[in-house]
Amino acid sequence: MADNLCFFSKDSFILKLPKKSPLVLRMVVLLFVMVCGVYICSICLRQISTGSTSEFLNIGVIQKPCPEPNIEPWEIPFVHYPNPKTFSRVECACNPVRYFAIMSMQRSGSGWFETLLNNHTNISSNGEIFSVKVRRTNVSTIFETLDKVYNLDWLNSASKNECTAAVGLKWMLNQGLMQHHKQIVEYFNTRGVSAIFLFRRNLLRRMISILANSYDREAKPLNGTHKSHVHSSHEAEILASYKPVINATLLIPNIRQVEETTKKALDYFKSTRHIILYYEDVVKNRTKLDEVQEFLKVPKRELSSRQVKIHKGSLSKHIQNWEEVEKALNGTQYESYLYGDYRR
């Protein structure tokens, strides 16, 4: 009987425990879930708060407005704030930039003129970019190249450490400019690009320069090197020693062809903002450079170039068949080309 009682008591004890255990376990699990939930929520709230703060700070930096430039209303389309991909312009982000293109013909003084512009702290002219044919294959490649230049992503020796205020390039009329003039005019007017036309009044001097440069490209008298421009009087004298023979029969037709090309270019681009310069005028009157700086809206500076003029003085000493040329032009509207002179 005692054994039975003892067994019954043990058995009863064993059976009662499971009834109390689920409630305790439920409470423990519930408490654990609550603690984890509170912990997870606190972490999420901290991350959201930090992320929002950072986002607001970043937006504040990016969207910080630049002060309104003190310009006339008509100038607004010509003022730009490029955002280059190749470097950060943060320190100059609020410095406005003007876009330009020097439009000229070979041997018209454009190389010398460009060195004058690049002598300015705030002007970057990137050279004769479209002399490379692949860059002017079609309108699309032309626009891609221009976009890169005007976005300040065309890096070369003309790139400035100072805040650039005017950026551009040198563009010859026979480098796709006349062929795609309609699309390029539209690009200029849409993007706010200003044109600087630079031509030569004395087309006979230009012809001598073309023939001499062509000879130099083949003969390379300067230590086997072709140089379109020189920086010493000695080099200039060597190149000037060559006297070309000019076809007197084709002289006037060739001059008229250049005049016609010039006239067409001015007509094609008359709807753009532009300025017209002549090499001889810039040589004689340096105030012309002040006009260019005013046109580009950059601070006025004294500009200089290291280039040395090659063909100086009277043309009679630079043309081998001078008498034939003189006879062909005397009594014509181009007679002044024979004797007009200037010095640089």
Commentary on this structure:
The chain is of the alpha/beta class. Helix content is 50%, strand content 8%. Strands 2-3-1-4-5 form a five-stranded parallel β-sheet, sandwiched between helices. The longest helix is centred in the first third of the chain and has 61 residues, at 2-62. The N and C termini lie far apart (138 Å). Mean pLDDT is 87; it is low at 1-17 and 50-63.
Low-confidence stretches are 1-17, 50-63
**Total number of helical segments?**
12
Tell me what portion of residues adopts beta-strand conformation: 5-15%
- Say how many strands there are: 5
**Considering DSSP H and I runs of 4 or more, what fraction of the residues is helical?**
40-55%
Molecular shape: elongated
Radius of gyration, whole Å: 38 Å
Encode the helix/strand succession as letters. HEHEHEHHEHHHEHHHH
For the report, how would you describe the main beta sheet? 5 strands, parallel
Report the structural category. Answer: alpha/beta
Strand order of the largest sheet: 2-3-1-4-5
Distance between the termini: 138 Å
Mean pLDDT: 87
Which terms summarize this structure?
disordered N terminus, 344 residues, 12 helices, five-stranded parallel beta sheet, alpha/beta, single chain, 8% strand
Compact summary:
The chain has 344 residues and is an alpha/beta fold. The protein has helices at residues 2-62, 110-118, 139-150, 173-177, 181-191, 203-219, 233-240, 248-268, 279-284, 287-296, 322-329, 336-339; strands spanning 98-104, 123-125, 166-172, 193-199, 274-278.
